[in-house]
Amino acid sequence: MDDLACDCLRLRGGTLELLDQRLLPGCEQWLPCPDIDSVIAAIQGLAVRGAPAIGVSAALALGCLAERGVDLARFREQAARLRAARPTAVNLMHLVDRLLARADQDQGLAAIPALARAAFDEDVALCEAMADHGAALIADGMRVLTHCNTGGLATVGLGTALGVIRRAHSLGRAVQVWVDETRPLLQGARLTAWELGRAGIPYRLISDSMAASLMAAGQVDQVWVGADRIAANGDAANKIGTYSLAVLAHHHGIPFHVVAPSTTLDLACADGHAIPIEERDPAEVRGFAGSAGALAWAPAGCPVYNPAFDVTPAALIDAWVLESGVYTREQVAAGALAGRPTPLG
Ligand code: MRU
Hints:
single chain, Four Helix Bundle (Hemerythrin (Met), subunit A), Rossmann fold
C-alpha cells in the first residue's frame, strides 16, 4: 500500500504507525505496529481509540498483512483476533467483516490492500458529509458542550461531533466549546482540548460534574457527542458519562445531538440492551497513568466498577447526524436508521 497519513495514524513503507494517544498531550510519539499482535495491543491499550479510527486501523493492518503474502487461513485467523480486540465499537467488526467477505469471495487476498485503503478514504468522506450536515445546526455564538474525543484522533478525517464543531468554526461561526474532561481516561482533557487548541477554537475545560450547573445557569445551547454503536431504534452507546449528559440536557431542554457515520450503525441490535459494554481495568478508576507517570489515589486493590461506555436511549436524543443527513427522533422512531443504506451494504 502507498504511504498515507492523518492525525492519528500513518502508513510508511508498508507498516502501520499510530500516534500513541496514551502519551498526549505531553508527547507526540508514533508507535510502529509491524504485526497484528502490536495492533491488538495498541487498540486494547487505547494508543488508538475512537470507533472509526479503530476500524480503519484494523483494516489497514489487515491490508499490510495481506501484502506480506500470508495465506488465506492465516489471514482469517488474524482477522478474527483483531475483530475481538474491543467489544463495543462496531466499526471494528464491520470493517474486518468487509475484508473477510471479500477474501472469502475471491478465495484470495489480492484485493485486500486496496479495500483497506478504500476504508481510509471512505472515513474521510463520511466525516466531511457529517460535518456539512451538522454544522448547519450550529448558529453563530452558540455554546456547545462535548464529551470524550470525537475529532481527528478518533477518526481518520475531521471527526464526528468535533468535526461538526470544527466545520461550524471554519464557516466563521463564533462557537464556544465546553469540553468535559471525561473520566476515567480523560479523553476530553487530554485529546479534545489539544485538538481544539491546535484548531484555534475557543474552549473551556470542565470536570464532568460541572455540566449540570452550567446547564442550569443557561450556559449551554447544545450538546454534541459521537457514538461507538447505534442500535436500529437509535439507542446509542458512547463513552461513559454520555447518558448522564443526555438526562441533564433533557431536563434543561437543551438539544442533544449524536454524530456518527453509518459504519457505526448496528442494525442487528434492535435496541441498546443488545450492545455489549466493555469493562476495563480497575486501575483506570483507582488512579491514572499517562505521560507524566502513574498515580493511584484509591486504596490499593479497592473494588471498582469500570464500564467504558453507556447507552443513551433514543428518547433522550434530539438528532442523529449521519453522512446521509440529519434524522429527528420521530424519523428514527419510524425506522429511519433501520431502513437506510450504509456503505457496508
Ligand atoms: O474508549 P474510547 O476513547 O475509544 O471511546 C471513544 C468514544 O466513546 C467516542 O465518543 C466514540 O468512539 C465516537 S467518536 C468518533
